[in-house]
Amino acid sequence: MSNAQHVLLIAPPTMTQTPAFDRAGALARAMQLPLHIVAFDYFQALAVAGLFAPEQISAAREGYLQAHRQWLVQQAERLSMHGVKVTSEVAWVQAPYAEIVHFVSEMPLALIIKGAQQESALKRVFFSALDWQLLRDCPVPVHLVTDDRNPQPHNILVIVDVLRSEEQDLVFNDRIVAAAKKLASVCEARLELAHVYDWTAAYVQDMGFGALPLATGIYEALGTAEREAFSALAERHGVPPACRHFIEGAPIPSICEFATGHHTDVIVMGTVQHNGLSKLPGSTAEQLLHRAPCSVLAIKPGRMLQS
């Protein structure tokens, strides 16, 4: 495989054009990187039937794969018209994540993009088992796309947790913001930096409900410390004051409300493998991912978004 950096788009097994196609094309063009599209096909019924009629089932499988290849070629040609170098392939595999790991090891990847389903009536995002594997285990930044509002993002929101205590986690904050800045730069998008201070959780966890009236000083001290840490992070990355948002409240509804009100196209967050996805302000990345009103980009420790 090529040694050049690529953007990898994981297409759905059904021949369906999702918003992820246009987002992948737009980001590959903005980042000036080639785009590779791969679809993973596997039907258990065909696999079982092949035990009894191998020749007929093999022909049927190859016919479907050829149709899917041709469809992807058409999508690649459409995206190529916008100045993107696009290649595509279809693989018959039962375990897609293992194949993606092979891509990661053989093809230098700047970013993996995949479509995720959003049900607007419920305001929830539904992820497949493969999505969760990518978010939890894949070392490459993963972008899950839910809407087609702006193929090239106009508004990017990066969420940080300034309470990270270990040195490696503090460095991780810098990586998250740097990746978001890089994405905003290549897309010529507005970048907003936010941290949510959940003082109610601090009370309940550390002091219990009975201590609330006595803990005003501690609450104010914690808030001051977090504000200072947040300001220092913003200063290090040159985020202007108008784009810094220190929010007090419950993290998940606060972030979702902010993203909705500011027409956010992408929420950038850090995810680590630590009892699932965690280390987001006051809650878990998993909860935010389920409720995010827009697409999300998950940054992993040790990996930067390339441009």
Automatic annotation (TrEMBL):
<keyword id="KW-0963">Cytoplasm</keyword>
<feature type="domain" description="UspA">
    <location>
        <begin position="155"/>
        <end position="300"/>
    </location>
</feature>
<comment type="similarity">
    <text>Belongs to the universal stress protein A family.</text>
</comment>
<feature type="domain" description="UspA">
    <location>
        <begin position="17"/>
        <end position="145"/>
    </location>
</feature>
<dbReference type="Pfam" id="PF00582">
    <property type="entry name" value="Usp"/>
</dbReference>
<protein>
    <submittedName>
        <fullName>Universal stress protein</fullName>
    </submittedName>
</protein>
<comment type="function">
    <text>Required for resistance to DNA-damaging agents.</text>
</comment>
<dbReference type="InterPro" id="IPR006016">
    <property type="entry name" value="UspA"/>
</dbReference>
